[in-house]
Amino acid sequence: MINRLVIIGVGLIGGSLAQALKRAGYCRHITGCGRNEAHLRRAVELGVVDDWQQDIATAVRGADMVVLAVPLGAMEENLQVLAGAVDDACIITDVGSAKASVVSAARTAFGDLPENFVPGHPIAGTERSGVDASFAELFDGRRVILTPTERSSVAAVQYVTTMWQQAGAIVERMDCRHHDEILAATSHLPHMLAYVLVDALVHMDESEEIFRFAAGGFRDFTRIASSDPVMWHDICFANRDAVLLMLDRFRQHLDQLAAAIQSGDSRQIKDTFIRAKQARDGFVDQLSDPHLSTE
Ligand code: NAP
């Protein structure tokens, strides 16, 4: 059981984790930290955290565990503050959607990677953000990928693993670079495509008419373009190389399709669609509740 947990960033992910751990009875006390007093008061009012504190150094004094659930662009500044404030025994983890950048920020902040630092990423989310969007069931049956560093201690990895299991998740481990490549393909690229598709249509003269007649397929494909722009902006930079690689690959496939349409190569067009349908029917439909997760 965690005696004192501090969650920095009580939004969708931080707030949902707090609620899931409360549901499991796994935390004696949860303090929420963040920039905005009104958001923190709201988190207490909703019963998501027990109390709040804006000063991170004060909040983490005597804590057993700190979870960083802030946008990727805010990880480094928060790790810098933690480095000067946290007890040696305190376990530190994060929930950032890209991992190599967080590891690098931790190395910069602490000088060397601390043994009690275990990066993580829950593969769960919705297109909503903020504490009002958080809910205890978000991680039920979902995967959480931990990317322990070469310095993470066995005990720290076990501690973070147990926390996520208590929150309802299935925990896996991966190297952080591998994590970033896989997520660039399965999550980051689809978000880029959804944002760019909607933005491209907005720029067309007939955009009003286009959106008026948009049907279910358009809605399904573009749902994730309602995700938080700041979060996805940060991911572009935090996972820059892998995202660029995936965009490049995708562009090649799109060019091939355009060439096939241009030259009337119906076989290639059909083969592409058949392969894609078979792959989707085989893999993606096995995912539970595909309408919920954005990651
Ligand atoms: P969110 O709902 O917007 O919550 C972010 C929280 O961080 C807010 O409580 C915000 O509170 C706080 N915050 C923002 N900037 C801060 C700063 N500079 N210092 C301290 N606190 C700050 O976002 P989220 O969806 O929970 O995402 C949080 C993290 O989870 C991100 O790193 C994201 O990559 C990762 N993640 C997201 C999803 C998803 O689908 N949404 C899934 C997996 C992982 P104040 O504005 O009050 O400070």
Describe this structure in words.
Strands 3-2-1-4-5-6 form a 6-stranded parallel beta sheet, with helices on both faces. A 3-stranded mixed beta sheet has the order 7-8-9, covered by helices on one side. Helix 1 links the parallel strand 1 and strand 2. With 295 residues, it is of the alpha/beta class. It is elongated and about 70 Å long. 51% of the residues lie in helices and 13% in strands. It starts with a strand and ends in a 12-residue tail after the last helix. The chain binds NADP nicotinamide-adenine-dinucleotide phosphate (NAP). NADP nicotinamide-adenine-dinucleotide phosphate binds next to helix 1 and strand 7. NADP nicotinamide-adenine-dinucleotide phosphate (NAP) binds next to helix 1 and strand 7.
Strand content: 5-15%
Count every beta strand, where a strand is a DSSP E run of 2 or more residues.
Answer: 9
Sheet with the most strands, sense and barrel status? 6 strands, parallel
The SSE string, one letter per element, is: EHEHEHEHEHEEEHEHHHHHH
The gyration radius over C-alpha positions equals 21 Å
By secondary-structure content and strand pairing, the structural class works out as alpha/beta
Helix content: 40-55%
